[in-house]
Amino acid sequence: MKRIALLSQRLANQIAAGEVVERPASVVKELLENCLDAGADRVEIDVEQGGAKLIRIRDNGSGIDKDDLALALSRHATSKIANLDDLENIASLGFRGEALASICSVSRLELVSRASSAVDDMAWRVEAEGQEMAAAISPAAHPRGTTVEVRDLFFNTPARKKFLRTEKTEFERIDDVVKRLALSRFDVSFMLRHNQRAVHHLQAAQSMQEMQRRVALVCGPAFVENSLHVDVEAAGLRLWGWVSLPTFSRSQADLQYFYVNGRIIRDKLVSHAVKQAYQDVLFHGRHPAFVLYLELQPALVDVNVHPTKHEVRFRDGRLVHDFLFRALHKALAEQRPQDRLATGVSLSSDNSGTDSWAPRAPVFGNADAVQNRMQFGAPETGISATSQWSSSGAWSAPASARQVADQLAIYTALQKDDDVPPLGFAIAQLHGIYILAQNRQGLIIVDMHAAHERITYEHMKAAVQHEGIRAQPLLVPVSIAVSQAEAECAEHQAGALLALGLGVERVATESIVVRQVPTILAGADIEQLVRDVLADVLEHGSSERIRNHQDELLATMACHGSVRANRQLSIVEMNALLRDMERTERSGQCNHGRPTWVLQSMDKLDKLFLRGQ
Ligand code: ADP
Ligand code: MG
Q1: Would the CB of 424 count as within 6 Å of ligand 1?
Q2: Tens digit of pLDDT for each residue in 30-79?
Q3: Which of 293, 309, 334 is the last residue of a domain?
Q4: Close Cβ partners of 154 (under 8 Å, ≥ 6 residues apart)
Q5: 141-151 burial, b if ≥16 CB within 10 A, otherwise e?
């Protein structure tokens, strides 16, 4: 056995660095957090060779007093907390007092700072030297604020250095860190350069428009165009930010930013709550995108659970989970076509060329342009004041006299330039699949089956919750040959099926009879409907589980009850569907998360035809 000896300071720091400084990006994270903690509103980041050669970060924050410079580089030295009370109410990003010491022990670090409180109005430089990391301090030139330069990261820890990936990969991680922090502080401007080439220049953002612009620069314009802005407050918690429409889902969970009191975190509880909120609207296996900020009293969240401070612990996890779930679920449910149109952003994925965040001409309110366009022939549109099918779910052909009167009313509405509903008026049906409609902004295209399916589903869900599903007996009961297992299932689960409006009876070992179906599904292919429901029920087993999977069953049923492709619809029926969509929760996506409608704005159509260029 060797004798016990104290570790040298540098070695102790190098060991600690193992936790905090994994790669260049972790250095950038720690240094940037220090800038923000110092109250800077401008930071510049210069990186060379993916950060392996150089990371230089300059801020205009409060700076460090000359007398504190040596301490700044020592371990367990911090200006951010002094006692346990402080630890429980942390408002700063840093508090462990080990970042600079750790980085310094595995690189060539130089820090130059001029404190705003400096009486001598001088800037000073500090470097750490030797095994004991004695600080060497010398005068320097620097404006108010601090510059930290980290060269040759891991030059003295070759094992670590070997783990570094390519320059490109390491820089991508740095870029990611900068983006994450840039989204946490809109009021700070960020400049990032790699090998002397500017990568980001994010101006400080104050107004909502400027903030959205930053989100668009960081997350891509398509995200902002396809997201909802939320801002909800309850029980001392506030949640705000942007969440993607379910139709803008991603194959990976790569566009998800969640901040707790300004600190980016990854948290299972949070992911779970968000996932649940999207459950009913997201295509299976897809991930939502979001930039969300949770604000709560610092005392209600413990940030001191992990050295990199990526994780937090909520004092009341259940409350936070429920709050997140409710807030997002509601925001997604309340989404109506009019909201999406009212944001004034086009829903195209075409982000080419021009700055899509420049203020646009208000298409919606531009009366002249719309009028002119609408005068090319009176659109043949018709609408029923109240939709016939939302109440009964059936397609009823209205009287032709009424149709004419309706058309007149619509024509007048278009002429008057007001009262045009968000999804506009139907013009035609395309290949028995799409409804074409005209609204103020241009052309609306609706996937008629997808839209109707969602409407039927939402109706059924609401019915189950309130008065129960209305059912009607079949004039001619339908008998179906099934497997013995299915027949048994129908027999045992007759009660549960009845609650869903399906009256099913077993009449032989391998035969059942359907006597009653939900009114809303009267027109459906009953046999196929019941077969699919039985298949679902068999999979779920017990009545208990059926109740838990009720929504899935309703979705299966809704799919059968919805208008099939190639059904000819009258203009009136099409308009009734459009009006129903405007009224129905989550009508922007079908039950599988695909979009139910898109807008082709006049701008976009004009571009297609090179008009006005
Ligand atoms: P922590 O951030 O956990 O306090 P660090 O090792 O990151 O620990 O920094 C140590 C101290 O150095 C900080 O508490 C702060 O007082 C000072 N400091 C570091 N970077 C800056 C900066 N950019 N501007 C002003 N002060 C700084
Ligand atoms: Mg720090």
Answers
A1: no
A2: 999 999 999 999 999 999 999 999 999 999 999 999 999 999 998 888 99
A3: 334
A4: 52, 106, 107, 160, 161, 164
A5: ebebbbbbbbe
Taking each helix axis from N to C end, the angle separating 167-182 and 24-37, rounded to the nearest 10 degrees, works out to 20
Residue where one domain finishes, among candidates 202, 233, 265: 202
Which residue's CA is the nearest one to ligand 1's atom 19? 34
Phi first, then psi, for residue 294 (nearest 5°) are: -105, 130
Unique residue bearing structure tokens 């043949």: 380
CA 97–ligand 1 middle distance (angstroms)? 7
Domain residue limits at 167: 9-202
Instruction: Give the β-pairing of 471-481 and 256-260.
Output: unpaired
| Axis-axis angle for helices 400-416, 571-583 (nearest 10) | 60
Residue with the two structure tokens 């009486």: 119
Residue 566 reports pLDDT greater than 80: no
111 or 461: which leads in pLDDT: 111
Any idea which residue has 């371990």 for tokens?
A: 75
Domain match, 314 and 374 both: no
Q: What is the pTM of this model?
A: 0.68
Q: Are residues 290 and 153 in the same domain?
A: no
| Ligand 1 probe mutation, 37, 42, 86, most atoms within 8 A of CB | 37
**Same structural domain, 198 and 217:** no
Q: How much distance in Å is there from the Cα of 418 to the middle of ligand 2? A: 57
User: What is the mean pLDDT of the segment spanning 421-426?
Assistant: 89
pLDDT on residue 399: 41
Q: What is the domain-level CATH number for residue 189?
A: 3.30.565.10
CB 36 near ligand 1, within 6 Å: no
User: Which protein residue has the closest C-alpha to ligand 1 atom 12?
Assistant: 72
321, with CB counted inside 10 A (0-12, 13-18, 19+), is middle
Contact 583, 333 (CB under 8 A): no
Alpha-carbon distance of 598 to 284, in angstroms, equals: 21
Q: Is 393 among the domain residues? A: yes
**Tally of structural domains, the chain:** 3
Is residue 61 in contact with ligand 1, taking CB distance under 6 Å? yes
